[in-house]
Amino acid sequence: MKRVLIVKVTSLGDIVEALPVVADVQRAFPGVKVDWAADEAFADIVHWNAGVDRVLCAPLRRFKKARSWSDLKAIWASIAELRAYRYDAIVDIHGVYKSAIIAFLARGRRRFGYLSQDLGERGAAFAYNGRFGPRPQCDAWHGMRISTGEALGYTVDTPPDFQMRVPRDGTALPAPEAPTALLFHATSKDEKKWPVEHWGELGNALIARGLRIELPWGNDNEHATALEIAALIPGATVLPRLTVSQVAQRIEDCALVVGTDTGFVHLAHALIKPTVMVFVATDAEHCGVRAPNRSISIGDGHRVPSVQAAIDAVDRVYPARDGGASTPASRVHAA
């Protein structure tokens, strides 16, 4: 086995959680080169994995929205790059039309994908001449590792190794002066959001544990919500709008991350930070994060988790430190 292509195109959290397949493949086949095909919007995340040789990307999402000529040309150019090598195996762990097309266009003997009933879009089946076994009874992230192992003939028997190396490119915010909790309140769908009042109550409980509170955001609506939450938490800081790289650097510099079912919370888990993920309308068992004494998911996807459940989860991943609470500042900072 000399070169393998992994196809996982979107989204941020899914790609982050799929990254351990790289270490798995390289553990099974020392010296193998692993390439990865992803949407351009998430290519940086894959670049941060130390084991990936080439990141093959195209502006698929942007072209779908804007239909621009320049994006179409970029997609055509990416096809030439995709076909520059012949692969011993192409493994599509995404399972929709766009990932299947990438797998089909790549040059290789074997193209592996899910069984029809496990595909995100059943028509994607045209691309494969090899199939994984039935979807295993486990979370989605471990399932991707098992499926890749089935395709390539090895067994997964180690904890996930994300091999994440976030570049320090000089754009990071100044390091916090005290232990800091990042609260990722924003998410892609309204039904996945935790109530503002819950964030306020949790933030005050974290301040009592000696933590500063910072609130990231990515658009105007999220900024407004961040200000609303900060108004409930004395001394909370609403961060300026950050790039993905800057958010990753801030995660590395913080002490604790609490957030909803969103990609940056998965990134915190991959960066080995104490992490609590709050599930309101999605399935924590299938899509959550978990690592002993470090990452935990709460919520069953049917009801809003209580603040006390979040506090209890924080106590499991970030136990109260000696020294008591710090005195919170008396005003809200907004950038």
From TrEMBL:
Catalyzed reactions: an alpha-Kdo-(2->4)-alpha-Kdo-(2->6)-lipid A + ADP-L-glycero-beta-D-manno-heptose = an L-alpha-D-Hep-(1->5)-[alpha-Kdo-(2->4)]-alpha-Kdo-(2->6)-lipid A + ADP + H(+)
Keywords tagged on the record: Cell inner membrane, Cell membrane, Glycosyltransferase, Lipopolysaccharide biosynthesis, Membrane, Transferase
SUPFAM superfamilies: UDP-Glycosyltransferase/glycogen phosphorylase (SSF53756)
UniProt xrefs under InterPro entries: Glyco_trans_9 (IPR002201), LipoPS_heptosylTferase-I (IPR011908), LPS_LOS_Heptosyltrfase (IPR051199)
Keyword Transport included in the entry's annotation: no
GO biological process: lipopolysaccharide core region biosynthetic process
Alphabetized Pfam families for the sequence: Glyco_transf_9
Keyword Transmembrane helix on entry: no
Biological or metabolic pathway of the protein: Bacterial outer membrane biogenesis; LPS core biosynthesis
Top-rank EC class of the record's enzyme: transferase
Intracellular or extracellular location(s): Cell inner membrane
GO molecular function ontology, one term from the record: ADP-heptose-lipopolysaccharide heptosyltransferase activity
Superkingdom of origin: Bacteria
EC annotation from Swiss-Prot or TrEMBL: 2.4.99.23
Topological relation to the membrane, as annotated: Peripheral membrane protein
GO cellular component terms attached to this protein's record: cytosol; plasma membrane
Matches recorded under PANTHER family: LIPOPOLYSACCHARIDE HEPTOSYLTRANSFERASE 1, TETRAACYLDISACCHARIDE 4'-KINASE-RELATED
Family the entry assigns: Belongs to the glycosyltransferase 9 family.
Protein's name according to its UniProt entry: Lipopolysaccharide heptosyltransferase 1
Taxonomic lineage: Bacteria, Pseudomonadati, Pseudomonadota, Betaproteobacteria, Burkholderiales
Gene field: waaC
